[in-house]
Amino acid sequence: MFNGKTKSEGFELGAEKPASTSASLIGAGTTMKGDITSSGDLRIDGTLVGNIHCTAKVVIGANGDVQGDISGQTADIMGKVSGTIKVKDLLQLKGGSVVNGNIEAAKLQIEPTANFNGGCHMTGSTPAQGAAHSKPAPDVKKEFKHADSAIAPA
Q1: C-beta of residue 59 within 8 angstroms of C-beta of residue 45
Q2: Domain count, the chain
Q3: Could you tell me if residue 4 is inside a domain?
Q4: Is residue 145 part of a domain?
Q5: How far apart are CA 18 and CA 39, in angstroms?
């Protein structure tokens, strides 16, 4: 009848679940005050007054409202953020999102109906130590075409 293994909520006791598959959720209708630190994915559909420090993906749902700074590996913003967003890889500002604050990301995607008010700093996704400042930028000449005229930079 029993196989000697104890299970609780579908997981074996004593077996560690990898941090990369764990996710946390602040549901709609929930308001939290304080900072959140997470090594797994994090989704905010409620209100958070505080900062988020995450080593994985951060998602702010359409009804989500964060009043504080966000740092993470990647982020999808569909709701409202008032604060600085720092992402090591891709930051997506989805349609209907409102961001009031500075952003820093390696890659940035902004949909046409997103509202962003602040400064933007693009970084390398994983720069080698000192590599960003050790080599001068190459002299690249490009030709830009607009309608019937060609514009070449000086």
Answers
A1: no
A2: 1
A3: no
A4: no
A5: 10
